[in-house]
Amino acid sequence: MISKINHQSISQNEIFHMSKFVVTENFNHHSNEVFPKHYQKDIDAVYKEEMGFLENSKIFAVKNDFGDLVGTIRVLKWDFVSVLPIQKMFGINPFLCTGGSDIHEIWHIGRFAIKKGVRDLNILKRLLVSAIAPICTHKDNIAFAEIDAKLLRVLTLMGIKAKIVGKSIEYLGSETIPVSMSYHGLIDFYNANKDLVLPEETFGVSAKSYQLPNRVVFNTEKRNYPLV
After folding, report:
1. Residue at 207 is within a domain
2. CA distance 54 to 49
3. How many domains does the chain have?
4. For the whole model, what pTM was predicted?
5. Torsional class of 117: left (φ above 0), alpha (ψ -120 to 50), beta (otherwise)
6. Is residue 218 part of a domain?
7. Which of 31, 99, 146, 186 could disulfide-link to 27, CB 3.0 to 4.6 Å?
């Protein structure tokens, strides 16, 4: 049986375990459980990156009754200083992907993985609702993610509207596509599925507040436009 989503503060050892789970399940799903020579380096890289994001992120996990991971996802509130995966992997400037829209908060969603063989669609929905909840608190919020091509098709069928913002690359054994997701592209899915999780099973309101860098602020009394 599957226990409820666990989103409590986690130790460094648990983050490493999560990192290993994410890398392992990606290769399980996309490479027929064939692991490359750089498998351990991939785990170490994910772990190092998530430790760097720890202060401003929340990791959600679904576990079975034995405490084994069944699914994970991570949401990160960008501080406008840390290098997001979409910048590092694709060389994409998030401010250039907003279409001239106002910017309130920028988020990043990553480390999504579900154990191979698990077919419960509600696990996917619960993880997604927990991750997108903070984006759905303000109409000018936006999120970025790097999504497997097959998963992107599934999310589209589920009603999540994602915009492709760059060319795909191969990452952790699959074709990975950079996307942006606005409040307006997420809110319908969130409203339809938010009852799957309790309010406390989301990022919460304690996340730090960050100001946009001066280089992207056009008029602080009117609108914030991406100028870089």
Report:
1. no
2. 9
3. 1
4. 0.83
5. left
6. no
7. 31
